[in-house]
Write a structure and sequence with these properties.
Blueprint: H1 5-31, H2 50-69, H3 76-101, H4 105-129, H5 131-135, H6 138-157, E1 172-174, E2 180-184, E3 189-190
Antiparallel strand pairs: 1-2, 2-3
Length: about 200
C-alpha cells in the first residue's frame, strides 16, 4: 500500500520539527539565563529571531525530505539521502545540547563543523535524487554557516583568561628551628614551617 503524498509531507515536516523541538528543550531555558550573561559580537541577532528562523528552516528541510521520499524508498539513492538527512538532524540537535545544554561553546564549535559537512552531504545526496529537494536546504546551510561564525565569536569573546603567574616577594620567615620559608602559592602566603 502506498503512502499518500500528503501524509509523506506531514511526516517529513514533523520529523524535522521534532529535531527542532528536542533542541529547543535545551535552548529555551538557557536563553534568558546563561546565554544572557555571554559577551556577544555586534552582529549577534536579537533573541526573538531564532525561533521563527529555525521553525522555517525545519519546515524547508521537511519539504526537501518529502521530495526525496516521494521518489520511492525502493531506490538506493533515496534511502542513502534520507539516512544522511536524519544524521544531520541528530547533529543539529546535538549542537543545541552542547552549546545551550552543557554551556560549552568550544565543543559546539567543533560539532558545528561536522553539522555543516553533514548538511552539505545531504544537499549533494538530495540533488542526486531530485535537484529541487536540494534547493530547500540552501537557506539552512547559509544559516548554519552564519551560526558557525557566531559560535566562534561567542567562544572567542567568552574564553576564561589564563591566570598570569603570581610573582611573590623574596621575603622569608624564620621558623622556630632556625630554617626559613618563603612566600608561594596564588595568594603569596608563607609556606608552613617544617616540624
Amino acid at each position: 500500500m502506498k503512502t499518500p503524498n500528503i501524509i509523506k509531507l506531514i511526516v517529513s515536516v514533523l520529523v524535522a520539527e521534532l529535531a527542532g523541538a528536542i533542541g529547543s528543550l535545551f535552548t529555551s531555558t538557557a536563553i534568558s539565563t546563561w546565554y544572557a550573561t555571554l559577551v556577544k559580537p555586534s552582529f549577534n541577532p536579537p533573541n526573538w529571531i531564532f525561533a521563527p528562523v529555525w521553525t522555517t528552516l525545519f519546515v524547508l528541510m521537511g519539504i526537501g525530505a518529502f521530495f526525496v521520499w516521494q521518489k520511492g524508498l525502493g531506490k538506493k539513492a533515496v534511502r542513502i539521502a534520507l539516512i544522511i538527512f536524519l544524521t544531520q538532524l541528530v547533529l543539529n540537535t546535538l549542537w543545541s545540547i552542547l552549546f545551550f545544554g552543557l554551556h560549552n561553546p568550544a565543543a559546539a564549535l567543533v560539532e558545528i563543523v561536522f553539522l555543516w559537512l553533514a548538511i552539505m552531504a545531504t544537499i549533494i545526496a538530495f540533488y542526486r535524487v531530485t535537484p529541487k529537494a536540494a534547493y530547500f536546504l540552501i537557506p539552512y546551510i547559509l544559516w548554519v554557516s552564519f551560526a558557525g561564525v557566531l559560535n566562534f565569536s561567542l567562544w572567542h569573546l567568552n574564553q576564561t583568561p589564563i591566570a598570569s603567574p603570581v610573582a611573590c616577594t623574596q621575603e622569608a620567615k624564620i621558623c622556630p628551628d632556625g630554617s626559613s620559608v618563603g612566600r608561594s602559592g596564588p595568594d603569596c602566603a608563607f609556606a608552613p614551617c617544617l616540624k
